[in-house]
Amino acid sequence: xxxYDIDSFSSECTDDFVKRIASDLRTxxxxxxxxxxxxxxxxxxxxxxDDIYIHLTIDIQIPKxxxxxxxxxxxxxxxxxxxxxxxxxxxxxxxxxxxxTLCAKIAHDWSTGKSALGHIxxxxxxxxxxxxxxxxxxxxxxxQLLRSLEVGGTQKLRxxxxxxxxxxxxxLDSLDEADPVLFEHKEYGSLLGAINxxxxxxxxxxxxxxxxxxxDITQITSCSYTRLELQGFSRADIVAYVNKFFSHVPTDVSSxxxxxxxxxxxxxxxxxVDASVPILILQICWYWQKSGGKEDIPQRWSHLYDNIxxxxxxxxxxxLKRRVSKVMIALLM
Length: 333
Known about the structure:
The chain is of the alpha/beta class. It has 13 helices and nine strands. The chain starts with 14 loop residues before the first helix and ends with a helix. The protein has helices at 15-31, 49-52, 99-112, 137-144, 153-164, 191-195, 214-220, 235-248, 255-267, 270-273, 278-291, 301-314, 318-332; strands at residues 35-37, 46-48, 58-62, 69-73, 88-92, 122-127, 168-173, 204-209, 226-230.
């Protein structure tokens, strides 16, 4: 990407500057977030996000005098409606439900023009685990997304973000991975200020977190925010995911037939039909694929995890096996 020459721009936020940032963001997302690594233990196994993504159910909490009620959203697009007045959103979800994958999907659809986010000029997806507690939002954007932004260009970027107001979305993913010091010193950076409404007040900011870290948000801000909850797969979602997985992942036998057999197996298995965690369904698909559908899936979770772990270990490279063995020995000593 061509470096930004901040001296070539006027002091005001120009359309050209914003368009160049948006173009580089789209390129960045299409080269990174739009590719999904299926299995952490198979580093080279990447697929297009849309080839494996299944719509995730999102509940929105609507405040009421007695207690809030939950209402299902038809799509994440509803979160960022143009006329929506709320500028802060918190999305909670248990481990493995797909919070980070949803963030990637939002970035994917925005960068490819497939969503209803046409009114959004700039969209930033930042990993909170990679941000120091004293780092400003604009510096984090430069470090994670816009490395070609020249020294001093972050101030122009900050002004652009503030000027564009609600047509900018900043996604802060994985609050549970953030530095705990962030919540102890309110003078640190603009990261905390962005969450508690003291900075970037007109921009839309979405924070994702595991439930246990949700209380930290209520401690640092008394301002209103829209609370969202990510749900697991429904039974129909499980079937759709399995069919999608086996239609894109090559196997030694007919992929589609293998997937259909797994669907039948899951539907007849009381244990698996209620498995709502996407990452677990992914592991089951992988286990079924590697065995060619020849091994029955255990009826107890503990046995299933044992089998999946053993098969993962068998598929590791020799170097990774040695490293895992060293870790296991160290844990047992």
